[in-house]
């Protein structure tokens, strides 16, 4: 196999060196060669996502083993790779050359849903032996992921309902073809009617003046409830449209028909700016990364990428080549939860509490990034993945992973004594996925830098969820902002949880908080004579209970992830990386709220747990208001995590208080956190980055 790879590497290197040929045909050849890499690696890697053939095989094995699956109409809610136990792959990642990973069997994890009863079952299929190894039905009330089928069923239950048609007509939309119903989940069942429903959904309504019109500019004043399991229409509820809690006051509830379109083809002819000049990115020598199947090597970094229906993009086995020595850093990294609670307390707005990943998933809602044109770098590579329909049939998610390089500004610089500036520019490798969750679009990227820093960067785009204000009302009750006449943009929070399975120079890791504090003694004292002294405080987090910690802006708190078994030769301290958190407001859901159990994992910004198989999501696999991080920590309160295999969870987000500038389409918002080396290398690892080649000047300036 190595000889075949070497031959391909030589062929690809020849293409890259022939600049004229590369500019004409290089990208096509590059993609073909990448396909050949995957083909030659016939057995694949145990972490590679399921193929189309494997998805089909897993469905066939389940159906043949349990005939009732077909007979009773069970649906395949979720099919994904069951990743091998960490103990099987860790030795290979840590550098053991005698680890036989080719013999690890391929397995599929499957969630099944019986739609009429909302029963949920799980199966594990061994694809090598062609057997179902595990099968179990889950407790009643367990909710499988919501899918497009759920939204379709919910819409069908309302569009033909006479009461709904009457309310839409009252809003000025008598033709239901111009009404846009949008289905949301119901996280907490707060009424007997909802509690007696198996799979409730709520539907908000909007009008559309013509095909392509921005319907968020025309919100209605009511919401409907349905049960998509029993196919029942449940109720209509009025929404507050004045500044108080009164939902029966419908005075002035006239739906606005003012245009607020963001598509330029629906704006004035001269709407677009004429003075914007394009900026192009070019890599005449070809991409700086190498792609072999799902393995990426970029300069001194090496890693694998994966993709599944729930998390979307997953990064595996990140290591760094330190002067020829492979140093493991992170075993697995992923966006493990994303939820958006709204802050308007006036019922029934408390139900605007969607868990975008936990309930609707990221991977199934991934956008084709090549078609969208959102990856702008030099030479861009795209990877596809296969997911499943409810019938179990596999389908391709094209360009759901995007890989490219970017210029990232000045890497290091200094004005030397001879008056010359010595500097070099920073490059970064970006690996991203793009998800659409209703009115919002999210770009989630992992960025790798030449100084060995790793950044998780998320961008929020899209349209705010609008609500109707009665005519003449501008006071939203203090829970939103009138972003346009009769359009209320409600306050809400976007919360993210990123799971980082650390292997800093090995399996034995520990975490401490690191705070910068002033010297406590008074000015004039022997230890602080001029009163300007400050120092640092390191607090070891010895148990999962102690590790439940929050950000501290006043002390610049970071979290140190160290390997106590590896000591730096200069500092005589353990080699370390640090988490530099994203700092924002805390979760505003009160702990005595009935909604709190669903998001209790967001009470803290950092959790540290001892590694356990299947503990991948902070709410547990199914967010039923029980389980997840709080339960795991309570069960392991006093477990020692000072020298063991640990997982760090970072909870962060931003609070979105809409403004007029967020309408009709908001400019992007971003949030990031960093993982950086601290006394891990012998010197700045980016010192060997060469200075940039001088670029030809396009515009020269002269002083007259």
TrEMBL record:
EC supergroup of this enzyme: oxidoreductase
Keywords, comma-separated and alphabetical: Copper, Manganese, Metal-binding, Oxidoreductase, TPQ
Domain Copper amine oxidase N2-terminal: 45-132
Signal sequence, renumbered to the chain: none
EC number assigned by the record: 1.4.3.-
PTM note: Topaquinone (TPQ) is generated by copper-dependent autoxidation of a specific tyrosyl residue.
Copper amine oxidase catalytic domain ranges (all copies): 282-687
Pfam families, A to Z: Cu_amine_oxid, Cu_amine_oxidN2, Cu_amine_oxidN3
Domain Copper amine oxidase N3-terminal as annotated: residue spans: 156-237
Complexes and interactors: Homodimer.
Full protein name: Amine oxidase
Organism expressing this protein natively: Orchesella dallaii
Lineage per the UniProt record: Eukaryota, Metazoa, Ecdysozoa, Arthropoda, Hexapoda
């Amino acid at each position: 196999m190595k000889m075949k790879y070497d031959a391909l590497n030589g062929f690809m290197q020849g293409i890259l060196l022939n600049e004229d040929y590369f500019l004409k045909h290089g990208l096509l050849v590059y993609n073909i060669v990448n396909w050949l890499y995957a083909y030659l690696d016939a057995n694949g890697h145990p972490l590679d996502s399921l193929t189309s053939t494997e998805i089909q095989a897993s469905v066939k094995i389940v159906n043949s083993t349990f005939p009732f699956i077909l007979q009773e109409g069970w649906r395949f809610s979720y099919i994904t790779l069951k990743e091998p136990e960490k103990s099987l792959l860790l030795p290979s990642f840590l550098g053991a050359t005698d680890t036989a990973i080719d013999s690890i069997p391929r397995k599929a994890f499957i969630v099944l849903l019986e739609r009429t009863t909302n029963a949920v079952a799980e199966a594990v299929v061994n694809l090598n032996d062609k057997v179902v190894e595990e099968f179990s039905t889950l407790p009643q009330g367990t909710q499988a992921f919501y899918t497009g089928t759920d939204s379709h069923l919910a819409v069908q239950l309302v569009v033909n309902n006479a009461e709904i048609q009457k309310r839409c007509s009252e809003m000025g939309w008598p033709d239901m073809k111009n009404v846009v119903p949008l289905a949301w989940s119901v996280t907490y069942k707060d009424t007997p009617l909802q509690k007696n429903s198996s799979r409730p959904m709520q539907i908000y309504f909007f009008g559309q003046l013509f095909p392509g019109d921005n319907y968020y500019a025309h919100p209605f004043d009511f919401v409907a409830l349905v049960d998509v399991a029993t196919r029942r229409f449940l109720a209509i509820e009025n929404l507050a449209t004045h500044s108080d809690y009164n939902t029966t006051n419908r005075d002035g509830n006239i739906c606005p028909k003012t245009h607020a379109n963001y598509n330029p083809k629906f704006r004035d002819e001269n709407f677009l700016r004429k003075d914007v000049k394009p900026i192009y990115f070019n890599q005449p020598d070809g991409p700086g990364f190498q792609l072999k199947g799902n393995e990426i090597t970029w300069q001194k970094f090496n890693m694998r990428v994966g993709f599944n229906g729930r998390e979307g993009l997953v990064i595996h086995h990140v290591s760094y080549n330190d002067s020829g020595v492979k140093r493991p850093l992170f075993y697995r990294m992923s966006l493990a939860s994303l939820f958006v609670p709204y802050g308007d307390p006036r019922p029934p707005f408390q139900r605007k509490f969607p868990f975008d990943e936990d309930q609707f998933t990221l991977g199934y809602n991934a956008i084709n990034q090549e078609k969208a044109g959102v990856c702008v770098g030099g030479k861009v590579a795209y990877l596809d993945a296969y997911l499943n329909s409810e019938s179990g049939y596999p389908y391709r998610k094209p360009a759901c992973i995007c890989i490219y390089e970017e210029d990232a500004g000045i890497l290091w610089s200094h004005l030397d004594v001879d008056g010359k500036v010595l500097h070099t520019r920073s490059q970064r490798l970006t690996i991203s996925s793009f998800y659409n969750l209703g009115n919002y679009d999210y770009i989630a990227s992992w960025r790798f830098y030449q100084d060995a820093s790793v950044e998780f960067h998320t961008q929020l785009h899209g349209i705010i969820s609008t609500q109707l204000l009665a005519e003449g009302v501008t006071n939203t009750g203090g829970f939103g902002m009138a972003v346009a006449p009769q359009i209320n943009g409600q306050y809400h929070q976007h919360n993210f949880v990123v799971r980082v399975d650390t292997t800093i120079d090995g399996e034995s890791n520990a975490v401490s908080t690191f705070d910068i504090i002033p010297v406590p003694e008074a000015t004039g004292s022997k230890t602080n004579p001029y009163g300007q002294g400050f120092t640092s405080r390191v607090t070891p987090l010895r148990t999962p209970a102690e590790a439940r910690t929050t950000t501290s802006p006043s002390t610049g708190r970071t979290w140190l992830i160290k390997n106590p078994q590896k000591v730096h030769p200069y500092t005589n301290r353990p080699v370390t990386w640090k988490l530099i958190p994203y700092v924002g407001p805390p979760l505003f859901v009160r702990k005595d709220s009935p909604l709190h159990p669903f998001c209790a994992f967001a009470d803290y910004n950092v959790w540290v747990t001892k590694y356990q198989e299947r503990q991948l999501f902070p709410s547990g696999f199914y967010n039923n208001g029980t389980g997840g991080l709080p339960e795991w920590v309570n069960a392991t309160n006093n477990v020692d995590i000072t020298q063991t295999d640990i997982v760090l969870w970072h909870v962060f987000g931003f609070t979105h208080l809409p403004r007029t500038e967020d309408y009709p389409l908001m400019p992007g918002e971003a949030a990031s956190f960093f993982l950086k080396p601290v006394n891990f290398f012998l010197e700045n690892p980016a010192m060997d980055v060469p200075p940039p080649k001088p670029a030809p000047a396009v515009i020269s300036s002269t002083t007259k």
